[in-house]
Hints:
The complex is a heterodimer of chains A (420) and B (423).
Chain A: E1 2-7, E2 12-17, E3 23-33, H1 36-49, H2 59-68, E4 73-81, E5 84-94, H3 103-116, H4 127-141, H5 148-160, H6 174-177, H7 182-195, E6 197-204, H8 208-218, E7 243-248, E8 254-261, H9 267-282, H10 288-296, E9 300-308, E10 313-320, H11 325-340, H12 346-362, H13 367-379, H14 385-393, H15 397-404, E11 411-416
Parallel strand pairs in A: 2-6, 7-11
Antiparallel strand pairs in A: 1-2, 3-5, 3-6, 4-5, 8-10, 8-11, 9-10
Chain B: E1 2-6, E2 11-17, E3 23-28, E4 35-41, E5 50-52, E6 55-57, H1 63-70, H2 80-85, E7 90-95, E8 100-106, H3 110-122, H4 128-146, H5 149-161, H6 175-179, H7 183-193, E9 199-205, H8 209-220, E10 230-231, E11 244-249, E12 254-263, H9 271-286, H10 291-298, E13 302-312, E14 315-324, H11 327-340, H12 345-362, H13 366-380, H14 387-392, H15 396-405, E15 411-418
Parallel strand pairs in B: 3-9, 11-15
Antiparallel strand pairs in B: 1-2, 2-3, 4-8, 4-9, 5-6, 5-10, 7-8, 12-14, 12-15, 13-14
Amino acid sequence: MEIINKDLGSFHLHFIKTDKFKTITIKVMFHSPINKKEITKRNLLIDILLQSSLHYPSRRELSIKAEEMYSLDIYTNNQRLGNYMVTSISLDVLNDKYTEEGNMEKAISFFSELLFQVDSSNSSFRKEKFELVKKNAEMALSSIKEDPSNYALIRMYEEFDKNSKVSYRMTGYLEDLESITEENLYTSYLDMIHKDLVDIFVVGDFDNKEMLSLIKSNFKFKMVKKDKGPYELEELKIRRNISMKREETDNTQSRLVIACPFKKLTEKEKNYVLPLANMILGGGCESRLFQEAREEYSLCYSIHSFARRLDHMIIITAGLDKDNYPKMKSIIENILGDLKKGKITDRELEVAKQAYYSSLEETEESSSRTILECFYEELLNIPNVEERRLGVEKITRQDISRFFKKVKIDTIFLLEGGAE
Amino acid sequence: MRKIDLNGLDVSVYKEKLSNNLDIYLVPYSNKKNYYISYATYYGSDILEFSTDKGNYSPPLGIAHFLEHKMFDEENGEDPFHFFSNTGTDSNASTSYDNTQYICYGNKNFKENLRYLIQFVNHPYFTEESVTKEKGIIAEEIAMYQDMPDFVLEMTLRNCLFKNSSRKYDIAGSVSSIEKITKDDLYLCYNHFYVPNHMFLLIVGNFSIDTALEIIHEELDSKREVELPKIIKKNEPNKVSKKEMNIVGNIEKSKLAFGLKIHSKEIEVKNNELDYYLNMLTTILFGASSLFRERVREANLISEFHTYWESFDSFKIFYLMASTRDNSLLLEEILKEIKDCSIDEESFERIKKVWIANEVKMMDTIEGCVDILYDDILKYRKVIPNKINCIRNLKFSVLKQIINQIDFTNYSVVKMEKNVKND
C-alpha cells in the first residue's frame, strides 16, 4: 500500500494505492465546526443531492444511469466527530479491468455532477424535490423511538448535558424542519461547497497521473480554507453525584445506558490505554461486563461498552429485564471499582492486546477502514498503525488501573420496559 | 481434490469430500490478511420431528438454537471464546432455519484455531445445571427480538403464509418452549444431526491449503458417518394460510409486510436458474430503478423498504417489507405492480449488469465471498462455478414464461399500525 497526500489549496487529496480491491472508492469529506441548527439541514441536503441533478431530473434516471455503469454506488453520511460535523459523499465503482475501458472515468464525472451540477434554479432547489426530502425527514424523525437502543443512547446524552455537543442528535430535530426552505437549503449547499474544509480520498488500483488529472478536472473547489481548530472536545463537566433518569416504554425489554466520562488523559492514555481499557471493560465476549453480567449472573443478553475518544467518555449499554437493574448497577460499579484498584489479570490484558492487534491488521482489509485510518493519521494526528502497535505492547496493568482512576459514572439512563 | 474456478471472478474453490462424506470447501486468497472458517451442519430449526429405529421425536421448539448456545460449554470448563480471543480471533455462531454454523475469523494462529474449532464442535458437553442457566439468557434474547417491530411483523407474516411449515416459528422458540428443553434433548439432536455426512467446512482467505488439509484429515477422518433419521414434515399447502392480518405495534409510522408464495414444482426451469430469474423479476419490478419505486417516492409513500427471497422444499417465497405513511395505498401500489408485471427487455439487460457487478464486488471481501458460497452450498449443496455466464445468458423470453406460470394472487399481507395507547 502506498499513500500520497497532496495539498491542492482548496482541498487535500489523499491517494491510497492498493491492489486489494476490485473497486475504486472516492470519498469527498466536508468538515465544519458543528452547529446544532445546521444538522437537520445538512441531512436534508445530502438527501436532496441524491434525488436528481442537472441532467438527470429524477431519482429513477440517476439509478438507471448508475446501473448502466456496472452498478456504481453512491452513498452519504453525516456524523459528528468531536467539535466537527463531517459530511461525506462516496463513490464505489468497479475497476475497468472488470467492466469496460472508460467506465471509471464516466463514473467519476457522474459523481461530480451530483455535487456540482445540482438540480436548481434561481438559487433554490426544485420545490417538488425539496418537499419530498422534507417529508422523508419528517417521517424518519417522528419514529426515532422505534429503535430502542439508539433512542436510549440519544436520551442518555441529553440527560448527561443537554448543552454539550455530545448531546446533539445527528438524526436531526423535528422542530428545526419547519424553518428549512428550498432557498435556505441551497444557501447551505453553497456554504458546504465553498466554506467547509474538504478532503478527497481515493482508494484502489489506479494510475496516479491519470487519477490526479481526473480529480482536478472533476472537483473544482475554488476557495482556499483555513484550519478551524481542534476536533477534540473541550473537557466535560462531570457531576459530583450520579444522575439517574428513567423513561417508560411499551417494550418488553429495558435498555440501560451509562455515561462514564474521563478527565485529563495524557496523550499516551488517549492513544494506547483507552482502547485497551475499553476492551477489558466491555469490548467483547471476553470483557468483564460480558463475563460477569451475562455469563455469571445471566442478567442480560447483550452488554458492551465503547469509547468515544474525542468526546472524553466510555459508554456502557445493556438490554435487560427492568427487575435486574439494581443488581446490574451494583455489578457495574463493582467492576469499575476493581479495575481502579488494579484487579486486572495478565490474561485479560493480553487478550485485549491481541484483539487490538487483530483490529489493526483489519485496517487495510476494507476501503472504508483504509480511508478512516488515513483520516485519523492525517487529520487527527493519531499515531500510525505500527506506532499504535508498539505503543500498546508496552501498556501495563498499572497503566490500565491509573486510567480507570480518571473514569467516573456520571449519568445513568434507563428506558424502562414492561414487567413481563 | 477438485479445483473449481469461479469464472469471471478470479477466485477458485478447492473441493474435497472425506470418506465419511463431509464436504470441504477451501478458498485461498493471496491478497488478504484474514481468514474465515465456518464449520456448519444442515441442522436448523426446520427439523420439528424425526424418527429413528428407537422411535419418533419432536423436541421443543427452539432446540437447534439452544443447542448452538450450549455448544460453547466445554467439559474442562474452558470457554471457546477465551481460546480464540487469546490470539485476537473473533468467534461466533448462528442458527437459522436450515443450518447452524460455528465460525472463527482472524489473522493469526490459523492452524490452532482451525483445530480448536473442529474439536469444540465435535465434542458436546451438556449438564442439567448449565441448561437451566442458559434459559434466562435465551429468554432475554427472545424478549429483545419481540421488542423489534420488524421482527414481530415478519413472524406474523410467516404465520399467514404457512400452515404447517417450520418457517412459521421463531428460530429461537418461545419462552415457554425453551423452558422444556433438557440436556437429553440436546444430546439427542446433536448425535443425529452433527454428523459428517450432514455437515460441511468452508474456509476462505489467507491460509495454506496443505496446512488446512493436514489438520482436517487429522481431526475429521476418524469421525464416523451416521445414518440420518427420517425427517417428518407435515405437508405444507400450496395456498397461503391466511390472506390478511392487522396488528398493532410500538411504532410511529405504519408498517406493511407482503409475502408471495410460489410453489415451484410447476415451473420448468433449473432450480438455481429459477432463483436468478425470480430475483431478476423482483429487481425489475421493485428495485432502485423501477417505476414502482419512482411512483411511491413521488407520493412520499415509503420511508423504509426492502425485499428478499426465501427458498425451501419446493417453495419460493418473496418478501417485501416497508414502513409507510399509508398501508392501504402502498398495498394498492404493490398489487398493481404484480398484476401488470410489465417488464421490458432493456431493463432486463441492464439488471444483468447490476448483478454481475454485485457478484464481483461481493467476491472482493472475505465476508462477501463467504456469504455467496455459504448460501449456494445451503441452497444447492454445491458451489456454482459459472454464475456470471449463467446470468449473462438468462433469456427475456424465459422470464416471460415464468411470469405466466406464477399465481400472483397467492399472497399474504400484514398491516401493522401504531398502538394508540402510546399517545
